[in-house]
Specification:
The chain is mainly α. The protein folds into two domains: 30 residues, no CATH class; 136 residues, no CATH class. The chain contains nine helices and four strands, in the order E-E-H-H-H-H-H-H-H-H-E-E-H. The strands form two sheets. Strands 1-2 form a two-stranded antiparallel sheet. The protein has a two-stranded antiparallel ribbon with strand order 3-4.
Length: 182
C-alpha cells in the first residue's frame, strides 16, 4: 500500500509510515518511563506471595480430615477443632471451585450453565481427579515458594558466624525445594 505525499511528491509505503509513527512514539516526551526495577520486583513478590498463600491454603485444606470425620476430630481439643473448622470454612468460601475439585465435585461455576445432572456426573468422573488437583496445588505451592525464596534479599544476624547472612537467594531456594510444609 502506498500513498502520495503532496509536499515532496514522494511515495510513502505503509511500512515507512509505521516506522515513522513508531519512532515518534518512542521519542515522545510524554512517554512514561518504565518503573524502576526495585518497584517491579516488589510487585512481582507481592503477586507471588498472593499465589503462594492461595496454594498453601489449598494444600492445607486437602490434607485435613473432613469435618464429618467425628472419630478423628473427637480426639482433638474443641479449640483446635473449631479453629480448623473455621479455617476450612474460610478456604471453602474463598476458593469454592478449587475446593469442589479437591472434594471430587463438579465446580459450582458450571452449575449455573444448566448442565443436566447425569451429564454433570459423567463429566465429574471423567475430568475431576482429586489426586491430580492436589498434585497441581502442591506443585504451584513449591514453585511460588521457590521464586519467593530466590528473590528474598533479607539478612539475619548469625551468632555462630558473627555475620549477616541472607535468608533467601538461589542457593537456599534450590536447597529447600520443594518446600511443602503447611
Amino acid at each position: 500500500m502506498t500513498n502520495q505525499n503532496n509536499e515532496n511528491n514522494t511515495e510513502i509505503t505503509y511500512q515507512d509510515a509505521l516506522e515513522q509513527y513508531s519512532k515518534e512514539i518512542m521519542n515522545s516526551p510524554t512517554k512514561p518511563a518504565p518503573a524502576p526495577a526495585s518497584e517491579r520486583i516488589e510487585e512481582v513478590e507481592s503477586v507471588l506471595a498472593h499465589y503462594a498463600q492461595k496454594y498453601d491454603d489449598l494444600v492445607w485444606y486437602a490434607r485435613k480430615q473432613p469435618q464429618e470425620n467425628t472419630e478423628y476430630w473427637g480426639k482433638h481439643a474443641p479449640e483446635i477443632r473449631n479453629s480448623a473448622f473455621n479455617a476450612m470454612d474460610e478456604i471453602e468460601q474463598k476458593y469454592p471451585d478449587e475446593v469442589a475439585k479437591l472434594n471430587g465435585e463438579f465446580p459450582a461455576k458450571f452449575n449455573s450453565q444448566n448442565v443436566p445432572e447425569e451429564l454433570r456426573e459423567q463429566l465429574t468422573k471423567a475430568f475431576i481427579n482429586t489426586d491430580w488437583e492436589h498434585g497441581f496445588n502442591s506443585g504451584c505451592l513449591a514453585a511460588f515458594r521457590f521464586a519467593l525464596t530466590a528473590l528474598d534479599r533479607e539478612l539475619y544476624w548469625n551468632d555462630e558466624f558473627e555475620e549477616w547472612l541472607p535468608t533467601g537467594g538461589i542457593e537456599d531456594a534450590v536447597s529447600e525445594f520443594p518446600e511443602l510444609d503447611t
